[in-house]
Amino acid sequence: MALPTDRDARKAIPVYDFLTGYFPDAFVEVVRVAVAGNQQHNPGERLHWARHKSTDQLNTALRHMMDHAVAPLDTDGCWHLAKAIWRLSAELQLRLEAVEVDIEPPIVMELAHGKAFFSRSQSASRKSVRTARRPVPNPRRKPRAKRKGSRK
Fold first, then answer.
1. Could you point out which of 49, 74, 102, 148 has its C-alpha 20 to 30 Å from the C-alpha of 126?
2. Is 0.90 surpassed by the pTM of this model?
3. 3-class SS letters over the chain
């Protein structure tokens, strides 16, 4: 998403005020995570997001949140929560880009042998991006029996 070109619309998005006024220390920690990750995965290169090396955002973010409950700092000295925020920011960026170009983000189509298979549709709408959040049925779970008076 690029910033709007209209003056009033631009003023309605105070990026600097937000970044420096709301959570400045937290954002610095997320930047440290980005720098540490760049040194690990792209040594000697300018800071950038190597998207092909970082693909499982939501599962990794949740693992970092669970690790935080045990020990707030990872073995590299970075905060697990900062790593989770980095991953969630990456997922949000991908979702926003998918809506911007009117394509569906990768969605889980089926589960087999514990592995997720993904599909990307070229003709998706904004509605399909919202419906992509539907949970994937668990193949091991038995279907619920219908109750009397159930609408389904």
1. 49
2. no
3. CCCCCCHHHHHCCCHHHHHHHCCHHHHHHHHHHHHHHHHHHCCCCCCCCCHHHCCCHHHHHHHHHHHHHHCCECCCCCEHHHHHHHHHHHHHHHHHHHHHCCCCCCEEEEEECCEEEEECCCCCCHHHHHHCCCCCCCCCCCCCCCCCCCCC
Non-local (6+) Cβ contacts of 34 within 8 A are 47, 49, 86
What's the CA gap between 137 and 143, in Å, rounded? Answer: 10
Overall residue count recorded for the chain in this entry: 152
Residues 6+ apart with CB under 8 A from 117: 108, 109, 110, 111
AA identity, residue 54: S
State the Cα–Cα distance between residues 18 and 30, nearest whole angstrom: 15
Structure confidence by residue, pLDDT tens digits, 9-47: 999 999 999 999 999 999 999 999 999 999 999 999 999
pLDDT in tens, 73-95: 999 999 999 999 999 999 999 99
